[in-house]
């Protein structure tokens, strides 16, 4: 089997000095998940990775990428010594990108980039060897790590690119050198750092600066900021491909039917009519799937086959996974949990609430008689000076009257709690831990509960407490 990296190749890429010859089958930054044969990269973040080099080698790491020799190592320990570990990781990523003939698509957006990345992985895997980032590895170390893990024989690569501050996307896009770059949407995320929606759009549009010559920009044409995105694409010399509901869209969404566990989508591309299913409820999933199909076609792959293979996709854990929690096996009582507790901003909050509003609870199996749609909403973080108004505005969401009660978690969500009609107002608590202790009182058999909030709100504690009330049956898919 061809190694991913040899000591010679890694030294050539980074300018580092190997202590002896070695071959690595993978690249890892975490000793908890490292596999035998991996190259361990001793990054320094919250903790210094050099402190874990010995542990990595004991677990079977082929070598370690370091900027100094840690104390206590054997004199013949396999190392690659470099001036700076992060810079060396970037160099490995750059070299891996240069040595492959893969067609590369990069994805960014305020909402949906991880789900869309996974859709693209599923769509392309049936048409060639496909490499994509793990989890949400989309930042200054996640993108180079994803590239460094890419085998030379890759046919298609899907790179997720994120940001939290200005100036982060363009360098990562230049490192990835995509043939196609897609922006799912632009929403009020990280407003504290950017100050305005237009500022966020310009940062997202910087992804086009990394496009290969004659590259394609896949852009959502239904946005307030579409003009900014297309302007960035033109400045980069990209071919612009639009997707959305607008008549101007190259890939036009005609109709969506949201069912309990799927979304049926009717769309068109020129004179071609397209019908496909997304195995999760939500109009936003339909929109992103259509953009992904446009990206697949721009890569030169078969969009018809890709639409069929979309059935392989399911939302990542904590991104809207819907599961049935069985409370009593004999009486067959249960409730449904939509766990969307990984991240939140106004756009993704609206999308998740839409899914809950369209979901159907089960009547007649609980003590209350009628099943309810219940929302447990945690703070949306990094929204800037308008954060309280943005939280209160959730009360005006169309169709929200179908949801009751609505429990609110965190100091920012108090603004929503105060804005809700009394009939919908559930509990307000300062911390998620307070509500998690009363999980059993939050639900009744037949209910559907949505748990949504930014990761920092720790509303996932409530989702876990609800999950522990019973044994989950087979999972179905939900929102992002």
Automatic annotation (TrEMBL):
<keyword id="KW-0436">Ligase</keyword>
<dbReference type="GO" id="GO:0005524">
    <property type="term" value="F:ATP binding"/>
</dbReference>
<dbReference type="InterPro" id="IPR004101">
    <property type="entry name" value="Mur_ligase_C"/>
</dbReference>
<dbReference type="InterPro" id="IPR036615">
    <property type="entry name" value="Mur_ligase_C_dom_sf"/>
</dbReference>
<feature type="domain" description="Mur ligase C-terminal">
    <location>
        <begin position="334"/>
        <end position="454"/>
    </location>
</feature>
<keyword id="KW-0573">Peptidoglycan synthesis</keyword>
<dbReference type="Pfam" id="PF08245">
    <property type="entry name" value="Mur_ligase_M"/>
</dbReference>
<dbReference type="InterPro" id="IPR036565">
    <property type="entry name" value="Mur-like_cat_sf"/>
</dbReference>
<dbReference type="GO" id="GO:0071555">
    <property type="term" value="P:cell wall organization"/>
</dbReference>
<dbReference type="InterPro" id="IPR005863">
    <property type="entry name" value="UDP-N-AcMur_synth"/>
</dbReference>
<feature type="domain" description="Mur ligase central">
    <location>
        <begin position="107"/>
        <end position="296"/>
    </location>
</feature>
<dbReference type="InterPro" id="IPR000713">
    <property type="entry name" value="Mur_ligase_N"/>
</dbReference>
<dbReference type="InterPro" id="IPR035911">
    <property type="entry name" value="MurE/MurF_N"/>
</dbReference>
<keyword id="KW-0132">Cell division</keyword>
<keyword id="KW-0067">ATP-binding</keyword>
<dbReference type="GO" id="GO:0008766">
    <property type="term" value="F:UDP-N-acetylmuramoylalanyl-D-glutamyl-2,6-diaminopimelate-D-alanyl-D-alanine ligase activity"/>
</dbReference>
<dbReference type="GO" id="GO:0047480">
    <property type="term" value="F:UDP-N-acetylmuramoyl-tripeptide-D-alanyl-D-alanine ligase activity"/>
</dbReference>
<protein>
    <recommendedName>
        <fullName>UDP-N-acetylmuramoyl-tripeptide--D-alanyl-D-alanine ligase</fullName>
        <ecNumber>6.3.2.10</ecNumber>
    </recommendedName>
</protein>
<feature type="domain" description="Mur ligase N-terminal catalytic">
    <location>
        <begin position="25"/>
        <end position="91"/>
    </location>
</feature>
<keyword id="KW-0963">Cytoplasm</keyword>
<feature type="binding site">
    <location>
        <begin position="109"/>
        <end position="115"/>
    </location>
    <ligand>
        <name>ATP</name>
    </ligand>
</feature>
<comment type="similarity">
    <text>Belongs to the MurCDEF family. MurF subfamily.</text>
</comment>
<dbReference type="GO" id="GO:0051301">
    <property type="term" value="P:cell division"/>
</dbReference>
<comment type="pathway">
    <text>Cell wall biogenesis; peptidoglycan biosynthesis.</text>
</comment>
<keyword id="KW-0961">Cell wall biogenesis/degradation</keyword>
<keyword id="KW-0131">Cell cycle</keyword>
<dbReference type="GO" id="GO:0008360">
    <property type="term" value="P:regulation of cell shape"/>
</dbReference>
<dbReference type="InterPro" id="IPR051046">
    <property type="entry name" value="MurCDEF_CellWall_CoF430Synth"/>
</dbReference>
<dbReference type="GO" id="GO:0005737">
    <property type="term" value="C:cytoplasm"/>
</dbReference>
<dbReference type="Pfam" id="PF01225">
    <property type="entry name" value="Mur_ligase"/>
</dbReference>
<dbReference type="InterPro" id="IPR013221">
    <property type="entry name" value="Mur_ligase_cen"/>
</dbReference>
<keyword id="KW-0133">Cell shape</keyword>
<comment type="function">
    <text>Involved in cell wall formation. Catalyzes the final step in the synthesis of UDP-N-acetylmuramoyl-pentapeptide, the precursor of murein.</text>
</comment>
<dbReference type="Pfam" id="PF02875">
    <property type="entry name" value="Mur_ligase_C"/>
</dbReference>
<keyword id="KW-0547">Nucleotide-binding</keyword>
<dbReference type="GO" id="GO:0009252">
    <property type="term" value="P:peptidoglycan biosynthetic process"/>
</dbReference>
């Amino acid at each position: 089997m061809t190694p991913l990296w040899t000591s010679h190749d890694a030294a050539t890429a980074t300018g580092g000095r190997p202590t002896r010859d070695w071959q690595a089958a993978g690249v890892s930054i975490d000793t908890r998940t490292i596999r035998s044969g991996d190259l361990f990269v001793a990054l320094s973040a919250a903790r210094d990775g050099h402190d874990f080099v010995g542990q990595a080698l004991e677990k079977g790491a082929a070598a370690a990428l370091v900027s100094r020799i840690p104390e206590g190592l054997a004199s013949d320990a396999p190392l690659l010594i470099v001036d700076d570990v992060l810079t060396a990781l970037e160099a490995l990523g750059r070299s891996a990108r240069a040595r492959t003939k893969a067609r590369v698509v990069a994805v960014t957006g305020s909402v949906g980039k991880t789900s869309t990345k996974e859709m693209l992985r599923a769509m392309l895997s049936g048409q060639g060897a496909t490499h994509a980032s793990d989890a949400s590895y989309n930042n200054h170390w996640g993108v180079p790590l994803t590239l460094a893990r890419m085998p030379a024989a890759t046919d298609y690569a899907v790179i997720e690119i994120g940001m939290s501050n200005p100036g982060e996307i363009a360098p990562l896009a230049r490192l990835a050198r995509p043939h196609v770059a897609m922006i799912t949407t632009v929403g009020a995320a990280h407003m504290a750092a950017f100050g305005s929606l237009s500022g966020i759009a310009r940062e997202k549009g910087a992804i086009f600066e990394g496009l290969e010559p004659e590259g394609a920009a896949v852009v959502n044409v239904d946005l307030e900021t579409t003009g900014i995105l297309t302007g960035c694409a033109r400045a980069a010399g990209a071919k612009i491909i639009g997707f959305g509901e607008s008549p101007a869209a190259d890939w036009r969404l005609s109709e969506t039917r949201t069912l309990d566990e799927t979304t049926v989508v009717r769309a068109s591309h020129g004179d071609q009519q397209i019908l496909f299913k997304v195995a999760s409820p939500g109009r936003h999933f339909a929109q992103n799937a259509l953009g992904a199909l446009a990206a697949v076609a721009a890569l030169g792959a078969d969009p018809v086959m890709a639409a069929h293979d979309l059935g392989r996709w399911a939302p990542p854990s904590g991104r809207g996974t819907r599961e049935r929690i069985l409370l009593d096996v004999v009486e067959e009582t249960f409730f449904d949990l939509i766990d969307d507790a990984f991240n939140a901003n106004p756009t993704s909050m609206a999308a998740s609430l839409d899914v809950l509003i369209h979901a159907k609870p089960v009547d007649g199996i609980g003590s209350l008689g009628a099943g309810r749609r219940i929302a447990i909403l945690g703070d949306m973080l990094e929204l800037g000076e308008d954060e309280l108004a943005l939280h209160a505005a959730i009360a005006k969401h169309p169709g929200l009257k179908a949801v009751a009660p609505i429990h609110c978690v965190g100091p920012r969500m108090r603004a929503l709690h105060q804005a809700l009609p009394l009939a919908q107002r559930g509990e307000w608590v300062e911390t998620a831990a307070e509500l998690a202790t009363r999980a059993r009182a939050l639900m009744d058999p037949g209910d559907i509960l949505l748990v949504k909030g930014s990761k920092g709100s720790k509303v996932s504690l409530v989702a876990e407490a609800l999950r522990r009330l019973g044994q989950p049956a087979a999972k179905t898919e939900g929102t992002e």
